Q: What sequence folds into this?
């Protein structure tokens, strides 16, 4: 088949480029320098997956890097209709993933876990996709998931011209934002049956259309044995942020009781 042949050719090309790159050393120009995307953090399998996303029409091209953390890198891409999308690529090399295992192992939705970092990382991307899907189905204002392929999550782009919308920490906030943040935590628990587990001023966009929650890789099913503990932590963390900004907030314990009763 033609697509197989293309895939094989591409793989050969990547192999060759990687070899050339290895021989030349890091400083010299190789094919990776021609593109903004083909940087050092992406391994061959990830690059293959990116090309698959392009061949299958999920995305057309990648415009650049938006941000990078220890465990993932976010890219700005464009789909065949010219619409902006974001790619969250989980880094296969991230050693920090081991410490994330408990968020997977004890979630009843992910009971069969194969060993190996790549597997864990791919599962993590799928978990975030599934969490986002659960949110959207439940009517929660979250980023819309578009596609997931191995360690690559394709999501709706929130922002303009490749610039992400501002998060709560980057904006002026008021009483309404506090209410809306607590409302999101409540809806997550009651409607989507999820606890974010990393809810903070860094993981909520403040847009013209209100707050939008994201970064749901850590989110667990409410049946997870630590779900209540994570919920308590989420409420405390976000309350602390609003207090720091001079707002009066409800007692976090009361909020916890109200949500879980
Ligand atoms: N869908 C998106 N649209 C626009 N920007 C995004 C999107 N998702 C993430 N970002 C940008 O990337 C940053 C990190 O994303 P996040 O999902 O929180 O990853 P991490 O796990 O590294 O915290 C965000 O603060 C935001 O600036
Ligand atoms: Mg984050």
A:
């Amino acid at each position: 088949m033609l697509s197989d042949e293309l895939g094989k050719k591409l793989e050969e090309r990547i192999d060759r480029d990687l070899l050339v790159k290895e021989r030349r050393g890091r400083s010299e120009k190789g094919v990776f320098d021609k593109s903004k995307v083909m940087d050092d953090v992406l391994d061959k399998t990830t690059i293959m997956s990116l090309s698959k996303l392009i061949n299958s029409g999920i995305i057309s091209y990648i415009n650049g890097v938006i941000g990078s953390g220890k465990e993932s890198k976010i890219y700005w891409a464009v789909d065949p209709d010219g619409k902006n999308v974001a790619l969250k690529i989980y880094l296969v090399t991230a050693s920090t993933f081991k410490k994330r295992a408990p968020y997977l192992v004890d979630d009843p939705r992910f009971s069969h876990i194969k060993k190996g970092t790549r597997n864990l990382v791919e599962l993590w991307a799928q978990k975030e996709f599934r969490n986002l899907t659960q949110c959207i189905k439940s009517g929660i204002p979250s980023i819309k998931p578009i596609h997931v392929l191995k360690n690559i999550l394709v999501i709706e782009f929130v922002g303009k011209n490749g610039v992400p919308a501002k998060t709560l920490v980057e904006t002026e906030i008021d009483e309404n934002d506090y209410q809306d943040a607590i409302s999101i935590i409540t809806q997550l628990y009651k409607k989507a049956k999820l606890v974010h587990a990393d809810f903070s001023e860094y993981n909520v966009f403040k847009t013209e259309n209100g707050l939008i929650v994201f970064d749901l890789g850590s989110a667990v099913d409410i049946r997870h044995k630590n779900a209540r503990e994570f919920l308590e932590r989420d409420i405390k963390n976000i309350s602390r942020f609003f207090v720091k900004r001079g707002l009066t907030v409800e007692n976090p314990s009361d909020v916890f009781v109200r949500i879980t009763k």
Observations:
- The chain is about 40% helix and 20% strand.
- Residues 25-38 have pLDDT under 50 and may be disordered.
